[in-house]
Amino acid sequence: DCSGDPGEQERHVHFLHYCEVMTALKVLGVHGNFVLKLFTMFEHETVSLMFLLNCLFLGVHVFKPCASKSGNSEVYVVCLDYRGYDTVPEVLRKTLMLPYGDGHGESVMFPLDAVSCDFVRQVEDCARLFMNWQRDHINSNVEMFRTEDEDVLCQIRNRKESVAGGYVRKFRIPKGINKRRRLMRSGASRFVHEEEPCSVALPELTIKTGRAVSVVYKSEFGHVTPKIGGDDLIFAAIKSNLPDTYASITGACFSPDDPQHVMQREFLSLVRKCLDCSCDIVIYGVALLTRFLVGVVYILASGFESFVTYESGAILFSKRRDSIDRIKGCFDEISQVYASLKGDKFPVDILEVVDKGILKRGHFYKAISEY
Length: 371
Known about the structure:
Blueprint: H1 9-27, E1 34-38, H2 44-56, E2 57-63, E3 75-82, H3 90-95, H4 117-146, H5 150-170, E4 208-211, H6 230-238, E5 246-250, H7 260-275, E6 280-284, H8 291-301, E7 304-310, E8 314-320, H9 324-340, E9 348-352, H10 356-359, H11 362-370
Parallel strand pairs: 5-6
Antiparallel strand pairs: 1-3, 2-3, 4-9, 6-8, 7-8
């Protein structure tokens, strides 16, 4: 990882590149081909590596594919027609690893007088060519970002639309993609996309039990993959919408190693504790993937005048109703069922507390799906 020192990327990764080359030389058959990803080619380690490849392959070419971002330094060395490891002199095989005995060698692989000046010049010209292309593209990007020239901006928009249109036509992408099948939903460009506030009535409990769920692979209420950013980023995005005092349940309250049924019991317990506080409640960073969890949220929502969901992964329950004691009673009843559960052959858990037909109805289902 060279993210902390990007200016020295070549120096940080040269030993990795060396190991990749040595592995290829030992496993590749005669007349085989090899592709190596490099970055810049200014250090002596890279020059030595390129010299070694030129000695063992009949053709060595450096490419920058069109799919590779022009603003980065990655290039691909394509080595053709391997001569074979047997062509490496025995004395050279023993000395190749000496500069990297511990992975941090300071000596060079080949002495300078062993590498022709013409070869060094070719590597230098190659490195300078790709460096200039990268520099020019970065400068162009900076200029485009800063420009206020309407003609230039119009050209950029037209080019984007042309590329996008060509992609849609080539791959026959339908214009009207179902909302639940989109990778990016409306409002996804903003981290916080607030749905309209809505409310629900207190439902009848329909408690169903069955074999406990350990892992959720697919959910009818949303994506199994977690929201990007984590609890801190979600909170930073919604904190301006929160009241002065509130109780919260976050993803950090649960251990990622716990089975799903353990997490669900803990969630019920935390919701019940939050109801003892006379304030609004916010839930964020919690994956609501099962009928049990969504049912608990539905019951909780019925105790407030409104609740709002955010695409960032948060739900805010506001303005308590007088029926809050009835809500507590529902959760206490669920807890009593939990206390009576016994499983002889496998763990038993509560799978459902509200009829699924109610959960998948109207604004509530839409709000949970957007959560």
